Amino acid sequence: MELKGRRIVLGVTGGIAAYKAAELVRLLGKHGADVQVAMTEGAAHFVTATTFQALSGKAVYTDQWDARMPNAMAHIDLSRQADLILVAPASADFMARITHGMADDLLATMVLARDCPLLLAPAMNRQMWENPATRRNVAQLQADGVQILGPACGEQACGEVGAGRMLEPEEILEEVVAFFTPKVLAGQRVLMTAGPTFEAIDPVRGITNLSSGRMGYAVARAARHAGAKVTLVSGPVALAVPAGVERIKVKSALDMHAAVMAHVDASDIFIGVAAVADYRVANAAEHKLKKDTGGIPPIELIENPDILAEVAALPDGPFCVGFAAESRNLEAYAQAKRRKKNIPLIAGNLIQEGFGGEDNRLVLFDDTGLHPLAPAAKSVLARQLIEHIATLTGKN
Ligand code: PMT
Question: pTM (2 decimals)?
Answer without folding.
Answer: 0.88
